[in-house]
Amino acid sequence: MAYFLQIVFAGVALGCIYALIGMGFSIIFKASEVINFAQGEILLVGAYIVSSLVFDWRLNFILAVASGVVATVLIGLVFERLVLRRMIGRPVFAILMITIGLDTILRTSVIVKAGPSPLSAPAPYTITDGFNIAGVHLGANDILTIMVTVVLCALLYYFFQFTRYGLAMRATALDQEAALAAGINIRTVYALAWGIAAAIATVGGVFLAMGTYSIDITLGSAALLAFPAIILGGIDSVAGAVVGGIIIGLVQDLTAGYESKVGVLGMGIHQITPYLVMILVLLIRPYGLFGTRKVERI
Amino acid sequence: MSASPKATATSTTLPTVNSAPPSRLLRSRASRWIATILVVAVVVIFFSVGNDDWFSIVNYTLIAAIAALALNVLSGYTGQVSLGIAFFMAIGAYTSAFLGGNRPSSSLDPLGLALPFIIWLPAAGIVAALVGALVGPSALRLKGFYLGIVSLSLIFIGQYIFLNARGITGGPQGRTFPIPAIGGAAFDQQNAFFGLALTTGQQYFLLNLVVLTLASFFVYNVMRSRAGRAFQAVRDNETGATIMGVNLFEVKMGAFVLSSFLAGVAGALYASFSRYIAPDYWSLTLSIQFVAAIIIGGVASVWGSILGAAFVFGLPLVIDHFNWLPVGGSGIISSSDLNALLFGLLIVVFLLFEPGGVIGLARRGQALTRRFNSHKEGGESAEITDLPADQ
User: Fold this and answer.
1) Please, what is the Cα angle at A113 between A207 and A202, to 5 degrees?
2) Neighbour tally for A176: CB within 10 Å
3) Pick from A154, B36, B104, B177: CA 20 to 30 A from residue B23's CA?
4) Digit-coded pLDDT (tens) for A128-171
5) Which residues of B touch A267 (CB under 8 A)?
6) Percent helix, strand and coil across chain A, each rounded to 5?
7) B230 reaches A (C-beta below 8 A)
8) Can you list the residues of chain A whose pLDDT is less than 50?
9) Pairs from B371-378 (Cβ < 8 Å, separation ≥ 24)
10) C-alpha dihedral (B270, B273, B278, B283), degrees to nearest 10
11) Contacts of B142 in chain A (CB under 8 A)
12) In this model, does residue B6 exceed pLDDT 70?
């Protein structure tokens, strides 16, 4: 039982990270109908910057995270302003591909700048800290991940429900032309979406790195597991991204915890169970748990 | 200088390079002959003077061009985003390994049936196409970006399967792949065909060239057929295509299966030429390289696939061959990283400014010179020369 609870706890913490990354995907998608394939590498760049600020520049952890967030938000804004805005009205194909271009540029820049060897993950405390309750080890990084996710979700909820720009973003997501007619500045909305997505991706990246104790070039593909999360939750639902993220995190950690006991599955099936869940969801309920039913089947 | 209404109606769906009005048909046919002769001459000259290193570079490029062509069928002509091409190449490669590989001499060796080359190469394509037909429905029934995400998951699911199916893939250590052989003459040795002694590189070169040429003609002609026009109609406007009586699902499946077939053949050729591959070769990065190749070379273009493959896959090998980059030390960029940085930038630049890739640039240049020439001769107006002509 303790083993099971241990896994559930770790799964929820991992799911919170997917929730953070997934929210970034769905915020951008709601605002501009763009699936940003570069999200994973924005996260990677963020985590690298934070790590090098903490370990090379001896900067305070909080300050380093703040600077990392600023840097990735800038990358997101510049890309949105200089590239994506010119692509408005172009086919989905071209827009997806251009985010893949950004993805390649960011990943290669990190490889060139930092070399192939992994960096250690920054953390505000000894990374293996934590305490035990009834035989369940609650890792400090997991607790912090969950807390920060809850706080960020609350902030985003407040932002979307009660602020002027949050309202503008919701209106744009509902009907872009009507929003324009009501005097909403769509450019600000796009910029906000990219800024918020980059910021929470960086925070997610720092926690993702803490979970594996190191940052290497595969961190970006770990972030791709947020795709199953948003498909499960419904791609145009920010709340769905949170629920989907936590479910996917649980699924992944539960299979990781029990796969060794089921010999036939072979090694590493936990790396693909999220994708299997996603394909199942696409076959049965392609708009996900909370998405609007506008997905068209042919 | 007016084309008949019927001709323009059927041809507007397919703008091609050959867009000269009838009076220039002769000249364009002549220029096509000249181009063909030039290509043949380059091939013959290369064939006689190239050394082993160059044959290796060119062989990898030719194989990459087949795979880029496969992706172009799906993404360029039919407009479906896919990141799964590496997966289908792997299916082809492992099919060839299973059918054509040596029989295991100990229980630790991966399986192989030692079937002849003439069976395992087509089988590689067919099995990849079957797998494509199997996974297609889950993604292709949904409009938009879903194929992109599902094909992404194929890469990871594939990695898991390839790591665990030790009997066929050799597990994490990888395995060797079969060598083509014609009439007992295996390509890994020097063989004499028709009294001509050919090295390994030369034999593979001829094989790859034949496969690429066949694939190119096939794709080029399919795209001018009813099916090909349906592909492109789906890309340009799904609703419009449906109204014209195109069955969206059938068309997408057709493109997906054809693309998977070509990718499977390319995968088998690649594996055979590199002799030894571990499962982690078939990665997302490989897929992205092919995406870059078709965008830079030219979407919906046979020559674009070839040029793109040469840039993305050939160029780093050329750079390494000449040691253009300083070696060793810290902060020094490797040729593959330099290339990745370059093609990442080029994806963005081309999509922003010239979505037709290098081929699009060439067409633009051609249109400009033609306009310039027609003004010089005081002949027809520039508008007419831009009309797509009869096929």
Assistant:
1) 25
2) 16
3) B36
4) 677 777 777 788 888 888 999 999 999 999 998 899 998 998 88
5) 163-164
6) 75, 5, 20
7) no
8) none
9) none
10) -20
11) 282, 286, 295-298
12) no
